[in-house]
């Protein structure tokens, strides 16, 4: 058959996973969908369960396992980083300010990509820097669309309020003026994955003297456009 790789056991395992793509299946359902012998289908499903690629639901039926979504998330992160370089460079060139990409990691946010301003005073956030989720425009973005309970917890001790985050959701961008660091302003917008969930925040940052006390007025559209390009790249490759 056309989709044979020549490695029989892998081809049969792929049949099992493909059969589960349409939803939970009993062993009899797997046998019917794959055409495999009952003992073979059972043996493969249990082996895949061992590797967390298959799991069971409350009724004991086979379903796709958590390992697949972990791998998909890692693939999505790689796609995001592969696309981020040119998008951040363009954002830096359009605004004249340093551009960063942040992802949430537990109770912190981490700078996973950046394009530095080429000259003059910089607001450097090196790639790999771990910053607080309690202050800054990208923290507001990464927090604003969280489910209510996590949002409530995250607001405790934060420099921004629930009302501010409501405004962020309405506008689709956030700004901060000296919130994380005195004298520094920033503007951020959300990057969304194929499921429309916010997976990252794109930011530009620089001194208040340049960005003024209304940095969103100057740079919100450029940041939104950059975030949109990254979201579109994730949709195209992972939709």
UniProtKB/TrEMBL annotation:
Give one Pfam family, short name only. IclR_C
Q: Which InterPro entries match?
A: GAF-like_dom_sf, HTH_MetabolicPath_Reg, Tscrpt_reg_IclR_C, Tscrpt_reg_IclR_N, WH-like_DNA-bd_sf, WH_DNA-bd_sf
A molecular function (GO) term: DNA binding
> What's a GO biological-process term for it?
negative regulation of DNA-templated transcription
Name the SUPFAM superfamilies on file.
GAF domain-like, Winged helix' DNA-binding domain
Identify the residues that the record assigns to the IclR-ED domain, covering every copy: 67-236
Keyword Transcription regulation listed: yes
Q: Which domain of life is it from?
A: Bacteria
Task: Give UniProt keywords alphabetically.
Answer: DNA-binding, Transcription, Transcription regulation
HTH iclR-type domain location is 7-66
* Listed name of the protein: IclR family transcriptional regulator
The source organism is Streptomyces venezuelae
């Amino acid at each position: 058959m056309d989709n044979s790789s020549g490695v029989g056991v892998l081809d049969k395992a792929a049949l099992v996973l493909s059969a589960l793509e349409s939803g939970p299946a009993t062993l009899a359902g797997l046998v019917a969908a794959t055409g495999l012998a009952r003992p073979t289908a059972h043996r493969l499903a249990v082996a895949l369960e061992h590797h967390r690629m298959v799991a069971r639901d409350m009724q004991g039926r086979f379903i796709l396992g958590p390992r697949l979504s972990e791998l998909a998330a890692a693939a999505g992160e790689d796609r995001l980083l592969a696309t981020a370089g040119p998008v951040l460079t363009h954002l830096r060139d359009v605004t004249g300010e340093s551009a960063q990409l942040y992802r949430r990691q537990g109770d912190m946010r981490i700078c996973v990509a950046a394009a530095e301003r080429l000259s003059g005073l910089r607001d450097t956030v090196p790639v790999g820097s771990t910053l607080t989720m309690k202050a800054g425009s990208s923290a507001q973005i990464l927090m604003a669309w969280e489910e209510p309970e996590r949002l409530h917890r995250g607001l405790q001790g934060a420099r921004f309020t629930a009302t501010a985050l409501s405004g962020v959701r309405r506008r689709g961008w956030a700004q901060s003026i000296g919130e994380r660091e005195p004298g520094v302003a920033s503007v951020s917008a959300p990057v969304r994955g194929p499921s429309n969930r916010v997976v990252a925040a794109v930011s530009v940052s620089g001194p208040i003297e340049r960005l003024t006390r209304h940095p969103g007025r100057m740079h919100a559209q450029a940041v939104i456009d950059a975030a949109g390009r990254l979201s579109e790249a994730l949709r195209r490759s992972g939709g």
